Amino acid sequence: MIRGKNILLLMDSHLEGNFSTEEATVVFDLASRCLQYEPRERPNTKDLVATLAPLQNKSDVPSYVMLGIPKHEEGPPTPQHPLSPMGDACSRMDLTAIHQILVMTHYKDDEGTNELSFQEWTQQMRDMLEARKRGDVAFRDKDFKTAIECYSQFIDVGTMVSPTVYARRSLCHLLCDQPDAALRDAMQAQCVYPDWSTAFYMQAVALAKLDMHKDAADMLNEAAALEEKKQRGGKGS
To answer: What is the pLDDT at residue 116?
Structure first.
């Protein structure tokens, strides 16, 4: 469907005049690869960054500025369900409190998301876990840029998928004023662990930072509902 159309007709109106036909073709080709049915045929994170980074000409300008959306530091409205400490911190957009909770929770919510065979304990695996460990130390010490780098090394290997790492990197991005990247990581955490309330909470904070307050409120309510479900014996956290 995409290949049969004029690329410029498919381009978002906000992007018109900012990219050449060749650049637009590269982006749409990448998008079509991302939609492939077989996971092995989709590009990995490194490929995405390598392709898109050269096209970004205003890397220091937040997306809400480029789109002409005013920025207001408002938290999402209080949800309908009772709030846990994590929910309360997210509703207040208290990033310091969220950081403390994630440090204390550690990796207990990752249980069952990875089962490694003996053969997978390769040197690459050990290096990957060492990168995560360095990320954990940096995260604990509030060196968030280093934490992003180390967690990215862990994620890029791809042998083990950790929702906690995505949630931690999401918070690091928020603390570095990168809400777009924070939202992507929170969504990845949800992909790994669909019923994990922390992933929804992190999305709520990122959406609020992006001034998408209705979406943030919906996400906060969904997170609180998942927590309530777990407390009644369902799966989620």
So the answer is: 52
Q: Which two tokens stand for residue 163?
A: 């929702």
Same domain membership, residue 96 and residue 25 = no
Tell me how far apart the alpha carbons of residues 213 and 207 are, in angstroms, rounded to a whole number: 7
pLDDT for res 33:
76
Longest dimension (CA), the chain: 55
33 with 139, same domain? no
Q: Which residues contact 232 (CB under 8 A, 6 or more apart)?
A: none
Q: Tell me what pLDDT residue 104 has.
A: 92
What is the spatial distance between Cα 213 and Cα 196, in angstroms, rounded to a whole number? 21
Residue pLDDT, tens place only, 32-79? 777 776 666 777 767 767 777 776 666 666 665 665 656 555 555 555
Q: How far apart are CA 217 and CA 201, in angstroms?
A: 10
Give the pLDDT of residue 59.
62
The radius of gyration of the chain's CA atoms, rounded to the nearest angstrom, is 19
36 and 144 fall within a common domain: no
Question: Is 68 contained in some domain?
Answer: no
Q: What is the pLDDT of residues 16-41, one digit of tens each?
A: 666 677 777 777 777 777 777 666 67
Residue-range definition of the domain harbouring residue 48? 7-57
| Domain total of the chain | 2
* Residue that is written with structure tokens 């392709």 in the block: 51
90 in the same domain as 198: yes
